[in-house]
Amino acid sequence: MRLAGAASWIHKWLALIVGVQMLFWVASGLFFAMFPIERVRSEHRIAVHDYAALDVAALPSSVEIAALLPTAPNKLSFERDSRGRAVAIAEFAEGRSALIDVDARQVISPLDREIASDIARAYVASAPAIREAKLVTSESPEYRGALPAWRIAFEDSEGLAVYVAADSGRVTARRSDLWRTYDALWALHIMDWRDHENFNHGLLILASLTSLIVVLAGFVLFPYRLKFGSDRKR
């Protein structure tokens, strides 16, 4: 009975300490299971375009592109942007990028509001009206991609916002109200309420260990409670 008494005390009082967090774990886990990650990432909103492949023979040489830039790039790649336009992306050692309009032979980065909005609008399937275009220069829980970037928010029921890197013109993130709810629950799930990404910290380990002790104490109590219930019936 001493073991049962100790297990009962542990189960009761430690459960009071971690009970709310255990509720968060279960509720958030249920939410994660209900919504496919592809939908959370708004992959269903990406427009599918059937643009023709780039004509390699018609592309300018790396020497021509380099002549448009203040310094020689470390890497140069050619692709079509979401609007179907041929662009070159030059990457430099210090992490910067430059976007070149191949047809116009002109550097167009950093992008202005209008070009960034056009790229975002072409990127989103059946794009609704743009509600807001805002230049983002610092990281936040919602966005940790390349900076600076344009946050293009659409006027739709999903609260969709697309981030377009101002230097490369690439879409670097998609965020919706579902994603924001998921992220808030993820922060509660891993107990990182500031950065929403660290699940190796001491508080989470302590809470998990305490919860494990509560569950183990419950297993210890189970045969005693079962026997107690049988005795009462008799």
Walk me through this protein's architecture.
The structure is a single chain. By secondary structure, the chain is α+β, with helices and mostly antiparallel strands. It has 2 domains: 2-37 and 183-233, no CATH class; 43-173, no CATH class. The chain is 42% helix and 18% strand. It contains 6 helices and 8 strands. The chain has helices at residues 2-34, 37-40, 62-66, 113-123, 177-190, 202-233; strands spanning 75-80, 86-91, 97-101, 106-107, 130-136, 149-154, 161-165, 171-175. Strands 1-2-3-4 form a 4-stranded antiparallel sheet, with no helix packed on it. Helix 1 packs antiparallel against helix 5 (177-190) and helix 1 crosses helix 6. The protein is elongated and about 85 Å long. It starts with a helix and ends with a helix.
Shape: elongated
What can be said about the biggest beta sheet?
4 strands, antiparallel
The helix/strand series, from N terminus to C terminus, equals HHHEEEEHEEEEHH
Number of domains: 2
Structural class: alpha+beta
Number of E-type strands: 8
Number of distinct helices: 6
What percent strand? 15-25%
Main sheet: strand order:
1-2-3-4
Radius of gyration: 27 Å
Could you give the distance between the termini?
Answer: 20 Å
Low-confidence stretches: none
The averaged pLDDT comes out at: 89
The percentage helix is 40-55%
